[in-house]
Design a protein that fits this description.
This protein has helices at about 1-15, 50-60, 75-80, 85-90, 105-110, 165-175, 225-230, 250-255, 260, 265-280, 290-325, 355-360, 385-395, 410, 480-495, 500-505; strands spanning about 25-30, 60-65, 65, 115-120, 135-140, 150, 155-160, 185-190, 330-335, 365, 375, 380, 420-425, 435-440, 445-450, 455-460. The chain is an alpha/beta fold and about 500 residues long. The radius of gyration is 24 Å and the shape is globular.
Length: about 500
Amino acid sequence: MKSIRTAIACVLMLGALPLKAQRKPNIVLIISDDHAFQAIGAYGGREARTPNIDRLAMEGVRFNRAYVTNSICGPSRAVILTGKHSHKNGFKDNEHSRFDGSQNTFIKELGKAGYNTAWIGKWHLETRPEGFSYWQILPGQGHYYNPDFQMMDGSRKNFEGYVSNVVEDEAEKWLSGRDTSKPFCLVIGHKATHRTWIPDTTDMGAFENTTFELPANFFDKYEGREAARVQEMSISESMRMGYDLKMFGDSAEANREGSIKRMNPAQRAKFDAFYNPIADGLKTVRFTAEGFAQWKFQRYMRDYMSTALSLDRNIGRTLDYLDRNGLAENTIVIYMSDQGFYMGEHGWFDKRFMYEESFRTPMIIRYPGKLKPGSVNNDFVMNLDIAPTLLDAAGAAVTADMQGKSFLPVLARKGKARKAIYYHYYENGEHAVSPHFGVRTERYKLIRFYKRVNGWELYDLKKDPSEMKNVFNDVKYRKIKAMMISELQGQIGKYEDTDAMGILRAGL
């Protein structure tokens, strides 16, 4: 009898304990460069071929309203790392900024929480990474073909092959050699789809039989929008025939371009065999101005979308690696671009502006057992929120200096979503985009341009989703304007943007 009572007591004690201790989730954060949401099937891209990103969306949450705080490469990465706006982390632009590695990052906090951490691929922060267990980065922008990597031991190493493939190879090598007694956080930084959009040789010509639909505002005249009028990022005027579109006059001109002159003979032979006949065929064609702009648009889109194929394929390799090694069920995977990009909207390529196509970015998260597969979220989230979200998921404290907030409570419907989002772009050089800051709410967007262009823009996004009509001086929007200026002042105060506050105080 006594033995029976003892057995029952043991069962009851065991029932009070968890059958399996909760493991900290692994993390894979994949950051591409300039990958437009319009170019992804899961976001409605009609001609896109992104089966692996689409798979991730089917297995996770697709954010329809993910935005960046500053639409340019280096500053976006600094925001992701620190959870702080550009004016707080110090990396405001790609012209003069260097990342202060001594400041806190989510990587350092994960390290304190027992994580193995690595960054492999594009870094673009002008300094050596700090706080990582391992890193291996592309110097500067990196090259599409046969790229060099700056190694953690201080050496520089060349790798044969196409950059998207090499980055994935090295990421898998690190995963296979990691300390398996610890959870890991791996950041994979892809160069694709950054300018100048040179596809892998296996993907050259993949879209040659595709005619891309011209955006309705491709021939935008920029009426009432001075900053948009003076930019230098139009496909018709600013896109270069050689540098951008690979339509070189001769081999000597081609040999001056970075990734092309790095090609080995086999790669170069495939490049020449594809692009040279297209360039030769142009010599006998006579275009109208509008016809030439449309030809450049088609050439741009075909190269861009072909470059995205290898990006998507290697994201698929990452997912397959996790599956094959039994890691998928305990690994958070986030895919995002460092910002959005123009696919001919307003006649443009590039990013920078607070208009939707560059302000908004693709973002997808898969978190097995925590987030419902195939779901869509329409709340405002920002790249500012990545750091606190990952710390929250890892059970680590979100530090007081981080200005973002975890979006996990919002996804679980246990937290409040943002009602407004704040943006500040600083650079005043390349592409002649005037510095500006602004605020977006559910329906309206207010932008204050300064330096190159001095003025205001207000958009009613319900009536004008393409942002073609600036209603800042429309008397019918007088109350809306006052409300949005007040909202902007509130956001500036909340995030302590003293530069923006000084501009407002100098005169509304």
